[in-house]
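Translate structure to sequence.
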């Protein structure tokens, strides 16, 4: 019985070491040195699909070290094999920090103050209240709900939008296409934390931006495929959006000649909002290995039909 580590090679030592620290008896192989494919009973994948996994006919589960699995679902798997994604305390904590950081920067007008300082201008802006600064989160799942809870704690009116109805303390919840427009109407700042699926591809488009108030701010920490790039540029040019903070891009790293690099109204962070840490994620992987061998349902299962 062998676990095949087929995730990012630079993280192999950390993941295998952390899992082995919990169970020293486990046997690992690393991609592409798997030996007999029939001996592989569990596969760990990461930020890219390593290759054709359908040759591992005895694999009982595939475990992603990433929360977003859109890139993996395009790959080839043994038929019917269950797939699990990562839900990790460290990942949630980092995402909450990243988003709260940009929301507070927007509330306190960090962009305007930095611009004023560059011109040696003493800019006394009127102080604003969090309670008058509605924030909306597209995707009220693990990361969206954790971010919403922290923003509620800080006094922001928070709205969340998801596929199905949700109940999160202090958050005004909306769901489905019919409620998207109402959700957007009062927002000062919109966060995207959706998974990338055929339904959510290009969701950040002209139609959505039109539903926001003039001068709203966009923060996309979901996936680059959510952004309709031409519509984003048009919304910035027209003043519909004041500026955008983007952590994720259709092509990563963002190509050097991409127009986003040259925009003063786009803040680029290089897909660093959050990562899974082996130290905190290993226990769930081990639990899923145990469940897979016992034929039990996995923690944090992915529904390939739904796409997340
Ligand atoms: P979850 O699966 O827990 O939550 C996804 C949320 O999106 C759910 O509320 C779901 O609604 C909603 N959703 C999905 N499809 C639709 C739709 N068509 N319309 C409306 N709502 C929809 O995911 P996580 O919170 O763990 O992660 C979210 C995403 O964050 C990841 O998929 C990834 O893309 C991104 N991410 C980015 C990172 C970064 O560093 N930038 C790091 C980690 C993740 P419902 O519950 O009703 O189905």
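Result:
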């Amino acid at each position: 019985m062998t676990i095949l580590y087929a995730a990012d090679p630079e993280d192999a030592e950390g993941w295998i070491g952390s899992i082995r620290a919990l169970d020293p008896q486990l046997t690992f192989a690393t991609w592409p040195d798997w030996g007999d494919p029939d001996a592989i009973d569990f596969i760990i994948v990461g930020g890219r699909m390593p290759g054709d996994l359908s040759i591992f006919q005895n694999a009982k589960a595939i475990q992603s070290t990433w929360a977003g699995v859109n890139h993996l679902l395009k790959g080839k798997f043994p038929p019917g094999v269950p797939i699990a994604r990562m839900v990790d305390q460290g990942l949630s904590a980092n995402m909450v920090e990243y988003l709260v950081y940009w929301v507070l920067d927007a509330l306190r007008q960090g962009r305007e103050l930095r611009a004023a300082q560059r011109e040696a201008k003493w800019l006394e802006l009127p102080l604003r209240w969090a309670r008058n600064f509605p924030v909306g989160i597209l995707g009220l799942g693990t990361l969206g709900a954790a971010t919403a809870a922290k923003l509620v704690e800080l006094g922001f009116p928070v709205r969340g939008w998801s596929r199905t109805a949700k109940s999160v303390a202090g958050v005004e919840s909306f769901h489905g296409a019919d409620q998207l427009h109402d959700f957007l109407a009062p927002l000062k700042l919109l966060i995207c934390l959706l998974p990338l699926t055929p339904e959510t591809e290009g969701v950040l488009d002209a139609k959505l931006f039109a539903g926001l108030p003039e001068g709203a701010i966009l923060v996309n920490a979901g996936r680059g495929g959510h952004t309709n790039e031409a519509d984003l540029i048009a919304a910035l040019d027209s003043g519909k959006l004041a500026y955008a903070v983007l952590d994720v891009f259709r092509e990563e790293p963002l190509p050097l000649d991409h127009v986003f690099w040259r925009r003063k109204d786009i803040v680029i962070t290089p897909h660093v909002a959050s990562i899974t840490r082996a130290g905190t994620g290993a226990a769930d992987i081990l639990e899923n290995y145990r469940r897979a061998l016992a034929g039990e349902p996995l923690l944090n299962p992915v529904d390939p039909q739904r796409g997340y």
